[in-house]
Write a structure and sequence with these properties.
This protein is an alpha+beta fold. The chain has a domain of about 160 residues: Muramoyl-pentapeptide Carboxypeptidase, domain 2, CATH 3.30.1380. It is about 35% helix and about 25% strand. The protein contains 7 helices and 13 strands. The strands form 3 sheets. Strands 1, 4, 5, 6, 9, 10, 11, 12 and 13 form a 9-stranded mixed beta sheet that branches. Strands 2-3 form a two-stranded antiparallel sheet. A hairpin with a 2-residue loop joins strand 4 and strand 5.
């Protein structure tokens, strides 16, 4: 006759069962570690949380987090930028306490699109590269069956206070620390030129391209201002690497 077990004894797992459970958990943990950290990991870079940001990786739910991690330090930002940009590192610039460029770069190319030389910081360069690679290039191909070849800008660093539609401000612009860039237009491989001052209100593909460019920039930059914001931005997008998510 089998001995009668109390209810709590019936529920208590055996030593062998607990050991098997622990073995399975350890195996899963070890397998996950190998899958993520192995040099030949099968996990694509965009989905792998331990692989640093690469501009060309597919956009995934991890991409925004990886981008913010990359721009959090000069070293990680440069490592990510090296995957998709041409630039020259320059000595830091300090004009005053309000006006300076820390980690100054002379940027010439991002994600295959050229720019007139612009002195800026890595965070702006990297955010621009992500925008070009994942949104502007596909939008140009969809709208014009052409490649994006160049970006027209009107500068990044400018030692000045903010300009508002109400006049001068006593707050310093993010341009004073090269934490912003102003984009005036785009050029395509078929010779098409798209300019905000001329084409923002266009009802055809140029206008649609510019609206899509503005909307997608909001996903990469902390602040995106367009001609819809005010008349001061009639001829450019103002794109910031600092701020709280303003998209106009």
């Amino acid at each position: 006759m089998k001995p009668h077990l109390r209810p709590e004894e019936k529920r208590r797992p055996s030593i062998l069962g607990r050991a098997a459970y622990l073995f399975v958990i350890c195996g899963i943990g070890w397998g996950s570690y190998q899958a993520l950290y192995h040099p030949n990991t099968p996990v694509p870079g965009g989905w792998n949380p331990v692989v640093p940001l690469t501009v060309g990786d597919a956009v995934t739910p991890l991409t925004g987090w990886k981008l913010e991690r990359a721009v959090a330090s000069a070293q990680s930002c440069i490592a990510a930028l090296d995957t998709a940009a041409s630039y020259t590192a320059m000595p830091d610039l300090k004009t005053s306490e309000q006006c300076h460029i820390r980690g100054r770069l002379d940027l010439r190319r991002v994600a295959g699109a050229s720019l007139a030389p612009v002195e800026t910081r890595c965070a702006i360069a990297l955010r621009t590269a992500m925008w070009v690679e994942h949104d502007l290039k596909p939008a140009a191909r969809d709208a014009f069956s052409a490649d994006l070849t160049a970006i027209d800008h009107i500068g990044s660093y400018n030692c000045r206070q903010m300009r508002t539609s109400g006049g001068a401000s006593n707050r310093w612009s993010t341009h004073a620390t090269a934490d912003a860039i102003d984009i005036a237009g785009f050029r395509l491989s078929d010779g098409t030129r798209i300019r905000l001052i001329d084409d923002w209100e266009d009802g055809g593909p140029k206008g649609r391209f510019l609206k899509a460019a503005r909307d997608s920039a909001c996903g990469w930059f902390r602040v995106t201002l367009s001609p819809d914001y005010n008349s001061l931005h009639a001829d450019h997008f103002h794109l910031q690497s600092k701020g709280w998510g303003l998209c106009r």
